[in-house]
Write a structure and sequence with these properties.
heterodimer; A: alpha+beta; B: 437 residues; Ribosomal Protein S5, domain 2; 6-stranded mixed β-sheet; 11 helices
Chain lengths: 235, 437
């Protein structure tokens, strides 16, 4: 058991050296979050992971259009806006992934026949965009005070051609990677809420990425906790 | 979502306050709200805050053939978008009157004033020119969108750097940021819009109206001016009649405001450039104030992934091998077959499913043929078929594959169930969707 561990840590170190001083193999970039920065939405948050930044605003529970009304739960709508140009297929696909994740967590049954609208604006994309969107979405939902079963976070893993695992990859690392996997995990049981992958990987690698994502999720949830502790502290 | 209407009570209160020379946010008549400019990590990206109104600006460029009547000029394109984030009443993808008005005013202010030297954007005359695209997103609407948008546009344009190009004969070489330093756009002057709101048929005037004041105002005068006191655009809307003196007074006020704002922009640009040159930290992360209680930062966190491999091995060892049964097609009735349990259809309406050749189905063929023979003989559901459908019945009809009855059963239309996202709650959503129908 000793040997593979050593080789992996060596590989990680090498990957770190390759990509310059930016991100060593297995670490998360610096995080920053600001909540309640917009006055119009009920909840808002901006989330930064390295140079990737997403701004999220949540309206709800509010009046719903009759055509979209669901009689026993809230209608959740997610709008993702790209920075340049009009939203395309990629945005629609991400919107859907984010909506499905949120629907699993938000207790919409407590607010039947209402709408919850979430607008996400990409401020800058430097890799792991979907993970950052998910994190921003969660912080905005928390800020809006919507009832949730658990918190959630997004973690992106990249596997390069040698099988080295990189957490929270930058845009360059994502481009060079053989496979990019994004997971959404919940905070209570650290279980998988959503996963989307691109590229080729074996089932063993999938499990490895998932385990690494779970380890990274610990850090993200600790970040959530500390930032909320600071926000609701008295001093 | 509809906009909350302003009550008569509020309206009267606001107007009376304006008559008494008071404003809700404590400003004086001629006070402008605080302007804050922050830059992103990449060139041409900025966020401008005017009080609580917030606009995100991003400039991008592209090499395109020029317009036939202007062969030596680059193309400037402006696009302001009112995101639903800014106010719940803004609907996505709808060209409202307000949006059209703002976009046209912005174009008049920035393109028609010739503040950008479009001739310097020409690479090969008549063949290749730079198209500069300015995307502006309103993030929060608290009145006076046009001023914030015009500031954001000019700041983003001044911050932007386009890749360097060289022309040798017919060959155009584009250099990346690493190869050669990118070039800034040549900007002649900086036009900035200043808005004036008029109340009681032009009796009272306020500079930089906020959202509440905009709702009760009678008319709006927008003056675009640069720091040399040259008027670039002037527009009066709302149908009020203004005296000559009023317009002149407004232009004087605009001159003062524009000088202040230009100075602030230049200072912000210099600051950012200095930080970039010195190799310091820049980008939005740095612009978040540390002392804010709602903001929090975390430094780079190492994650211990040493036991990942062991964990993965454990899980794989524990996991049961996938059942083999799934791939067998089930024939419900002659004409309807199903492969696997399927996942929620993510393509909306079921379209013509792709045809697959027999060799894809391979070994399962025999079973299908058997089933068909059996079914055509009896015509009703056989008991052997019946226990299966109950288990699988919660999958939707989208997964059912329709066979044309008189066609040769060998030619089977199958649907590729893509090994897409296998979401945990997919089953749940399927059920709920059924209820809605």
């Amino acid at each position: 058991m000793e040997e593979p561990m050593q080789t992996e840590s060596k590989l990680c170190a090498e990957a770190g050296a390759d990509s310059g001083s930016l991100v060593p193999g297995c670490s998360l970039r610096h995080f920053a979050c600001e909540q309640n920065l917009l006055s119009r939405p009920d909840g808002s948050a901006s989330f930064l992971q390295g140079d990737t930044s997403v701004l999220a605003g949540v309206y709800g529970p509010a009046e719903v259009k009759v055509s979209k009304e669901i009689f026993n739960k809230a209608t959740l709508e997610v709008i993702l806006r790209p920075k340049i140009g009009l939203p395309g297929v990629a945005e629609k696909s991400r919107e859907r992934l984010i909506r499905n994740t949120c629907e699993a967590v938000v207790l919409g049954a407590l607010h039947p026949r209402t709408s919850i609208t979430m607008v996400l604006q990409v401020v800058s994309d430097a890799g792991s965009l979907l993970a950052c969107c998910l994190n921003a979405a969660c912080m905005a939902l928390v800020d809006a005070g919507l009832p949730m079963r658990a918190l959630f976070c997004g973690v992106t893993c990249a596997l390069d051609s040698e099988g080295t695992l990189t957490l929270d990859p930058t845009a360059k690392q994502e481009k060079e990677a053989r496979a990019v996997l994004t997971f959404a995990l919940d905070s209570v049981e650290r279980k998988l809420l959503m996963s989307t992958t691109k590229g080729l990987y074996s089932d063993a690698e999938l499990q490895q990425c998932l385990a690494a994502a779970q380890a990274a999720a610990q850090h993200v949830f600790r970040f959530y906790r500390e930032s909320l502790q600071r926000r609701y502290s008295k001093s | 979502m509809k906009e909350t209407p302003l009550s008569n009570c509020e309206r009267r209160f606001l107007l009376r306050a304006i008559e008494e020379k008071k404003r809700l946010d404590g400003r004086q008549t001629y006070d402008y709200r605080r302007v804050r400019v922050a830059f992103g990590a990449d060139y041409g990206c900025c966020v401008v805050e005017l009080g609580r109104t917030r606009v995100l600006g991003q400039v991008s460029c592209e090499l395109v053939p020029p317009k036939p009547n202007r062969a030596t000029e680059g193309i400037l394109y402006f696009n302001l978008e009112l995101s639903q984030m800014a106010a719940p009443a803004f609907e996505p993808g709808r060209q409202s009157d307000l949006l059209v008005k703002l976009n046209r005013l912005l174009e008049r202010c920035l393109r028609n004033s010739k503040c950008i030297d479009t001739e310097s954007l020409c690479v090969v005359a008549g063949e290749k020119v730079w198209q500069i695209r300015v995307d502006l997103h309103l993030l929060n609407h608290d009145g006076n969108i046009i001023d914030a948008a015009s500031i954001a546009a000019i700041v983003a344009l001044s911050h932007f750097r386009r890749p360097d190009v060289s022309v040798q004969g017919d060959e155009v070489t584009l250099y990346t940021h690493e190869e050669r330093d990118p070039v800034p756009l040549s900007i002649h002057h900086m036009p900035i819009c200043v808005s004036f709101a008029f109340f009681q048929q032009g009796t009272y005037l306020l500079v930089d109206p906020n959202e509440r004041e905009e709702r009760v105002m009678d008319g709006l005068l927008v003056i675009a001016m640069n720091k040399h006191r040259e008027i670039c655009t002037i527009q009066s809307s709302g149908g009020i009649m203004l005296l000559k003196d009023q317009v002149l007074r407004c232009s004087k006020i605009a001159g003062v405001k524009v000088a202040e704002i230009t100075e602030l922009i230049q200072k912000a640009l210099e600051n950012d450039q200095k930080v970039r040159k010195e190799g310091g930290k820049f980008g939005f992360a740095e612009s978040i104030a540390n002392q804010k209680i709602t903001a929090f930062k975390m430094e780079k966190a190492p994650v211990d992934t040493s036991n990942v491999e062991e964990k993965a091995e454990e899980i794989i060892a524990e996991a049961e091998p996938p059942s083999e049964v799934v791939s067998k097609p089930v024939l419900w009735t002659p004409g309807t077959a199903q492969i696997g349990e399927g996942i929620e259809n993510s393509w909306g309406e079921l379209e013509e499913s792709e045809k697959e050749d027999e060799d894809e189905v391979g070994s399962d063929e025999a079973i299908i043929l058997d089933n068909i023979k059996m079914n055509t003989g009896v015509e009703v559901f056989t008991s052997g078929n019946q226990d299966a459908p109950i288990v699988l019945s919660d999958s939707e009809e989208e997964e059912m594959i329709v066979l044309e009855p008189d066609k040769n059963p060998k030619k089977i239309r199958t649907q590729i169930i893509s090994a897409k996202e296998e979401k945990a709650p997919s089953r749940k959503t399927v059920k709920k969707r059924k209820k809605n129908c």
